[in-house]
Amino acid sequence: MKNGKIEIKKNVLLKDYSTFRIGGKARYFVEVRNISQLIEAINWSYKKDIPFFVLGGGSNILFLAKECKELVIRCAISYIRHTNNNLKFETLYAGAGTRLERLVQFSLKESLTGLEWMVGIPGTIGGAVCNNAGAFGKEVKDIVKKVKILKVSKNGLETKTFSNEDCQFSYRSSLFKNNKSYIIVEVELELKKEKKSRIESKIKENLLYRKVHQPLEYPSIGSIFKNIPFSRCRPSLLEKFPDLKQFQNRKEIPAAYLIDSCGLKEKKIGGAQISKKHSNFIINTGKATAEDVMILISLIKQKVRDKFGIQLEEEIIIF
Fold first, then answer.
1. Residues 84 and 206 in one domain
2. How far is CA 44 from CA 29, 47, 70, in A?
3. In the chain, which end has fewer C-beta atoms inside a 10 angstrom radius, N or C?
């Protein structure tokens, strides 16, 4: 059914909007391409007394319900513009729904460095900021200058701008991750000028690493669990498992190492399987269900807890 400038669709398959290819139906679904449409969609949900959920690229989320009763608002606010700050820096302004791959290619074209680590990540910049995404020792917080949001409150809707410090970035989290009141609409990034050949070389290097070490040939939603801060390791744990000391300089223990150590590589439940290439990836081998994935997640957490006394925490969003 159409409603003004937006089109509210019914019974939309969410698996088509998830890189996991898992998900039931959304009773109501709408795609918005600008702030005006976003506001209209939220107002529609208020009038109908239906909660809403904002979806980005679907690369970090597991849909559980067979039917999602919320209005799913897919953010497709996608654009890039940039300004010259000085000889060394440029500022990029990107709509929250802009794909990371598009940003990487744009930065390469304009000889701007800082986004090479994003290559191969299928999400959007809004989702990346929300989750403080990272790879190859880099994180979104390192390049974010400002974030423009739509604030939702009882008093209505208003736009606000947050500085990097305001965003409260932490490991795979931010102020926005669990706060439905703040919807990211635009991200301001500060990047450095660099020789195009160097940027291109780093992009190729990172992409090759992903192809070798990550199961890109299967549907997945990336790393399932957060790595463990090394500071959480008790002396007694290091005495029992001295191999953990190898991660002291790294300052974190890879969740994949702990999962491997429990002999869980390639463990399969239904259509969900722990990847052979990377044990912190669960792949959809063809017909995985959300239940298959949740059972596998539960098994991993239990085995790691039983062996190491460490409680793994999900990096993904479970909805």
1. yes
2. 11, 5, 12
3. N
